[in-house]
């Protein structure tokens, strides 16, 4: 049995979880408290997730885990990648995480089930973003860049089953990004993007965050 140590909000953890869902491989999901530094350091020498435990051995780095699990049998992620998708991911990063991180700090994620775990997250992330309260008070205008980016994404989606028509690593990166976006209330998803994120959610067995969006 595989054991995967994660945070529920973490997009890199979503990437690692996706391959298990796509391949229908059972695993134990363990959610660490966000302020637990000792456990991941004991496993891989640094505070970082996801971490895969297999037969007493530990592996970090989300895409290394994806490649390892996908390589157990005939690989699924064999489709071509599209530089335009990679470019979209890069362009959306800063706007997304500026809005995502303050909302994650408010959301009922299990890694923040203790006051210390939530405070640790706020303290470390605000160093790069500034006060979360200031970002949350910006209003609907602050979401316009993200809505524009979603419009840009729509013509890149070739199929609801796979962004480029056949499953590839682009799907791992893109669904993880869309999963984070789903925590942000007030976004408008073009039809192609909506169909893709709903279909990939079902295929991976990973729920979107729409129900707790802020």
Structural write-up:
The protein is an alpha+beta fold. It is built from nine helices and four strands. The protein has a four-stranded mixed β-sheet with strand order 2-1-3-4, sandwiched between helices. The protein is globular and about 50 Å long.
For the largest beta-sheet, the strand count, sense and barrel status come to: 4 strands, mixed
Strand tally: 4
Name the assembly state.
single chain
Unreliable parts: none
**What Rg is obtained from the alpha carbons, in whole angstroms?**
17 Å
Average residue-wise pLDDT: 97
Derived from helix and strand composition plus strand pairing, the structural class reads alpha+beta
Strand % is 5-15%
Number of helices: 9
Kindly report how far apart the N and C termini lie: 36 Å
Compact description:
The chain has helices at 11-23, 38-44, 62-70, 83-106, 115-129, 132-136, 144-153, 169-181, 191-204, and strands at residues 2-6, 27-31, 51-54, 57-59. By secondary structure, the protein is α+β, with helices and mostly antiparallel strands. A 4-stranded mixed β-sheet has the order 2-1-3-4, sandwiched between helices.
Question: What labels would you give this structure?
Answer:
214 residues; alpha+beta; four-stranded mixed beta sheet; 9 helices; 4 strands; 51% helix; 8% strand; globular
Topology:
Blueprint: E1 2-6, H1 11-23, E2 27-31, H2 38-44, E3 51-54, E4 57-59, H3 62-70, H4 83-106, H5 115-129, H6 132-136, H7 144-153, H8 169-181, H9 191-204
Parallel strand pairs: 1-2
Antiparallel strand pairs: 1-3, 3-4
Helix pairs in contact: 1-3, 1-8, 4-5, 4-7, 4-8
């Amino acid at each position: 049995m595989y054991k995967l140590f994660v945070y529920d909000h973490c997009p890199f953890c979503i990437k690692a979880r996706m391959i298990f869902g796509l391949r229908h491989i059972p695993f134990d999901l363990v959610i660490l408290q966000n302020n637990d530094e000792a456990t991941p350091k004991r496993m891989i020498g640094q505070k970082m997730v996801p971490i895969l435990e297999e037969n007493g051995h530990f592996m970090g780095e989300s895409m290394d885990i994806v490649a390892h699990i996908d390589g157990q049998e005939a690989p699924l992620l064999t489709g071509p990648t599209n530089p335009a998708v990679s470019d979209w991911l890069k362009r959306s990063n800063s706007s997304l995480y500026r809005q995502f991180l303050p909302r994650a700090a408010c959301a009922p994620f299990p890694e923040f089930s203790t006051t210390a775990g939530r405070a640790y997250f706020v303290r470390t992330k605000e160093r790069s973003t500034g006060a979360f309260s200031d970002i949350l008070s910006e209003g609907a205008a602050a979401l316009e860049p993200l809505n524009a980016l979603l419009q840009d994404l729509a013509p890149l989606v070739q199929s609801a089953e796979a962004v480029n028509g056949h499953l590839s690593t682009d799907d791992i990166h893109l669904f993880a990004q869309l999963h984070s976006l789903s925590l942000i209330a007030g976004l408008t998803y073009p039809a192609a993007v909506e169909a893709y994120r709903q279909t990939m959610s079902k295929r991976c067995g990973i729920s979107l965050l729409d129900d707790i969006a802020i």
